[in-house]
């Protein structure tokens, strides 16, 4: 298994010195007020992002308790929370703290990969999820190449444990990057098993699993769509349709009158993040399956087909249906105040937003993305770039 890379220790303060406590004794480290405030920031502000589809709140409750006697998990929390505070407040001191605890995390992750017996521990996977988020916010070179091998060949029976919570977060992070880069997932989902869901949060997790499997089935290399065999396409379609048919009324949005002068998208109000995320993944799946269906037909007759926005010109009916699903994805993000759901929506928006043709909606979507970056401190440049590039290829760039 590839090991995380270790770089030289970064400077921790302007004069190169630091009195930061070692994460080896988390309880002792928390006696320092600044460490305690950084840890509280994770528990109150950031952990809910990871509990998006988890009514048990395992990243808020279980992870924060587990971290009190797990130096790897504790240092990963401090690294992620500190870099988020740096991006939110602009203080260089938080960046120094983040770099210190990120390095401490990588040191411990290397030690665990050497022992291998702890690789599939739930706390290790949770720490990896936090460190992946750290590297996105820090815009740093990834130290976690090969981290998907933590799950390679492992049979995961989804349940109430921390390993399952870590898996769902790792999957959603992988889906986000796969949708932005239009590639398959880094992880294989063949060994994942879960009971048919009866609770709303588990329903959102089920559609996450279906989306991940569909991405792996439909995405080829680069931007080229894979020719999906008709039986495989029908099987995926049936599973998605069954998921939609079985949804309780709690997944139905509340529609209300709106001021069209300020919002160009429908108002679709929900009260839980898992409803928003689940429906966004559903609409993303619909678009991918429509593209796969059309792509297989066109490929059989005229060679390979790019999964770009130019496909919209091929048939008005399919174009209208694809655009409907894209509008729903964006409307769900705009209508609700869940930062956790907004961060999770970046992948679906990057992949599906290219199919929005209304110029007012395009302009509002770009404005909303900039607002969400300020609210969440999550970088959106790559998403904006994907959208603008696709719209420019249409000859209808947003000014």
Automatic annotation (TrEMBL):
Primary location class: nucleus
Gene Ontology MF annotations: DNA-binding transcription factor activity; transcription cis-regulatory region binding
GO cellular component, one term: nucleus
Compartments where located: Nucleus
Protein's name according to its UniProt entry: Zn(II)2Cys6 transcription factor
Organism classification: Eukaryota, Fungi, Dikarya, Ascomycota, Pezizomycotina
Source superkingdom: Eukaryota
InterPro entries: Fun_TF (IPR021858)
Keyword Magnesium: no
Keywords: Nucleus
Gene Ontology biological process terms from the UniProt entry: positive regulation of transcription by RNA polymerase II
Region called Disordered, residue ranges: 1-27
């Amino acid at each position: 298994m590839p090991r995380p890379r270790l770089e030289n220790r970064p400077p921790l303060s302007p004069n190169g010195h630091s009195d930061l406590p070692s994460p080896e004794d988390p309880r002792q480290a928390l006696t320092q007020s600044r460490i305690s405030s950084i840890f509280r920031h994770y528990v109150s502000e950031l952990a809910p992002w990871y509990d998006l589809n988890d009514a048990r709140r395992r990243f808020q409750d279980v992870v924060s308790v587990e971290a009190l006697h797990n130096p790897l998990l504790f240092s990963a929390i401090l690294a992620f929370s500190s870099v988020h505070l740096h991006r939110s407040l602009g203080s260089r001191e938080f960046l120094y703290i983040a770099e210190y605890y990120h390095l401490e995390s990588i040191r411990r992750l290397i030690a665990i990969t050497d022992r291998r017996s702890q690789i599939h521990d739930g706390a290790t996977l949770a720490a990896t999820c936090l460190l992946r988020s750290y590297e996105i916010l820090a815009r740093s070179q990834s130290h976690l190449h090969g981290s998907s091998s933590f799950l390679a060949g492992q049979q995961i029976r989804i349940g109430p444990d921390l390993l399952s919570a870590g898996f769902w977060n790792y999957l959603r992070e992988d889906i986000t990057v796969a949708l932005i880069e239009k590639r398959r997932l880094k992880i294989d989902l063949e060994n994942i098993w879960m009971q048919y869901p009866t609770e709303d949060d588990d329903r959102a997790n089920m559609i996450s699993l279906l989306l991940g499997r569909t991405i792996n089935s439909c995405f080829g290399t680069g931007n080229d769509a894979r020719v999906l065999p008709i039986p495989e396409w029908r099987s995926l379609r049936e599973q998605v349709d069954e998921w939609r048919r079985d949804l309780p009324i709690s997944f139905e949005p509340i529609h209300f009158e709106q001021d069209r002068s300020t919002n160009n998208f429908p108002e679709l109000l929900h009260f839980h993040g898992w409803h928003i995320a689940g429906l966004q993944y559903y609409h993303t799946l619909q678009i991918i399956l429509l593209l796969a269906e059309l792509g297989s037909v066109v490929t059989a007759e005229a060679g390979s087909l790019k999964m770009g926005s130019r496909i919209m010109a091929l048939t008005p009916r399919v174009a209208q249906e694809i655009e409907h699903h894209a509008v729903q994805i964006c409307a769900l993000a705009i209508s609700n105040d869940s930062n956790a759901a907004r961060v999770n929506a970046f992948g679906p928006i990057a992949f599906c937003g290219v199919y929005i043709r209304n110029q007012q909606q395009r302009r509002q979507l770009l404005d909303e993305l900039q607002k969400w970056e300020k609210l969440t401190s999550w970088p959106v440049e790559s998403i904006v770039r994907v959208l603008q590039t696709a719209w420019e290829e249409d000859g209808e760039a947003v000014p």
